């Protein structure tokens, strides 16, 4: 017999107005009641939301029983079976996030050597240069400036383009598509169209690199055992993930720091505190939307007996605010030891780009605050729609000086 | 004391090399290794923290003989 737990409809996603940092209040309330919650999805599927830290970690660590295969999943708020019938398509070739072992590990191992701690640290100097260029541009332009388009977006975009070998001149085109896919503001049709457009762009790019290799990661993958389809899919995944995620962290992170001058001072003035400060911002902001998994067999989890074929949404944002794991979890405390947070996921799918994101953030946050010590909000910061896959800001006017 | 990494399990996350760089590094494929036994005892605490943070539980730190 399963214990009695709360039941909700779908996936609470609405954030409280004026609280861009806190998880949706309804989700936080449920997390306080129970580390696992039953959810009736829009298509009628009886799924679960995992809200407690220990259970979230347990699910993400166990890829043998909790699968990532998209074709087995239900979406909490979209009825894909209405569109596709019972045959939900699997993830596109090269989409690591939608694969299980051994297919997942085969592809991931062709990439891990390129994203090591050491290799990403070797980019530090280049990241400092790119950051300095954008700070100069901000200074030249003069206040007010939109921090999202002047700072948060271009720095990670330029870096991922250089790393992959994607022409930076074409950024406006693929940025727009990535925004549609992750941003939550586009309609389902626009999202699908942008997703295909990105796929076509990267297929062409990768075909050109396979024919005439240049000195970059995407060209180097030509020598791996990837099929051309996988190669194109990996390009799309890396480009999209590299553009959008760190950009969201930078924008929301600066907003959080501007509201808390004593915390901003730590990031600005104490270089030794910066690595820990970045982990705490990752925990506190937890920008990824809930991570889906599906049971491959009957499992017992948190006192519930869950049948095979059940979708679980692992809400890392509320799990990272579980007071059984982090004391006073609602406070942003850059000096706390936040390691062990789940903001990059956990288990075999844990973020491949995490060491790149860390180096980017460790450079960019303090550089901005040192260059403009009196940086302040100069209007309203606008947040993305509540159903965005990556939480973030669409604009944030800032000013400095007199 | 012994530190071992199960390379078949390793997901190349880099958490070990990030957390306890004195003990762990990543090889050319990005897989975790603990190449220098002389570093283990001195950095036992950091090695144990890395073992706890490894996303796939690939690290074993055993104390005693
Ligand atoms: C601060 C920024 C970032 C956050 C919050 C973030 C978050 C995540 C999360 C939560 C996952 C796990 C998804 C799952 O378990 O299904 C993930 C996977 C992934 N991320 Fe990131 N990410 C960030 C930056 C990046 C960057 C810069 C890149 C690329 C260079 C990247 C590439 C990837 C890839 C390829 C995967 C799939 C890994 C796999 O399935 O094996 N991410 N990320
Ligand atoms: S922390 Fe674990 S998964 Fe990550 S590189 Fe080290 S051994 Fe591999």
In angstroms, what is the radius of gyration of chain B?
10 Å
N-to-C CA distance of chain A: 66 Å
Say what the CATH topology of chain A is.
Cytochrome p450
Give the % helix of chain A.
40-55%
CATH architecture of chain B: 2-Layer Sandwich
Give the helices and strands of chain A as they follow along the chain.
EHEEHEHHHHEHHHHHHHHEEEEHHEEEE
Number of domains of chain A: 1
Most residues in contact, chain pair and counts: A-B, 26 and 22 residues
Ions and ligands: protoporphyrin IX containing FE, iron/sulfur cluster
In terms of structural class, how would the helical and strand content of chain B be classed?
Answer: alpha+beta
CATH-derived architecture of chain A: Orthogonal Bundle
- Which parts of chain A are unreliable, with pLDDT below 50 for 5 consecutive residues or more? none
By secondary-structure content and strand pairing, the structural class of chain A works out as: alpha+beta
Q: Residue-averaged pLDDT of chain A, rounded?
A: 94
For the termini of chain B, the CA-CA separation is: 7 Å
How many strand segments of chain A? Answer: 13
State the shape of chain B. Answer: globular
Number of helices of chain A: 16
* Order of adjacent strands in the largest pleated sheet of chain B: 1-4
CATH homologous superfamily name of chain A? Answer: Cytochrome P450
Q: How would you describe the overall organization of this protein?
A:
The complex is a heterodimer of chains A (402) and B (65). Chain A has 16 helices and 13 strands. With 402 residues, chain A is an alpha+beta fold. In chain A, helix 1 (25-33) links the parallel strand 1 and strand 2 (36-40). The longest helix of chain A has 31 residues, at 228-258. The mean pLDDT of chain A is 94. Chain B is of the alpha+beta class. Chain B has 2 helices and 4 strands; from the N terminus they run βαββαβ. Chain B has a two-stranded antiparallel ribbon. The chains are: A alpha+beta (402), B alpha+beta (65). At the A-B interface, helix 16 of A face helix 1, strand 2 and helix 2 of B. The complex binds protoporphyrin IX containing FE (HEM) and iron/sulfur cluster. Iron/sulfur cluster binds next to helix 1 of chain B. The site of iron/sulfur cluster (SF4) has 16 residues of chain B, from helix 1.
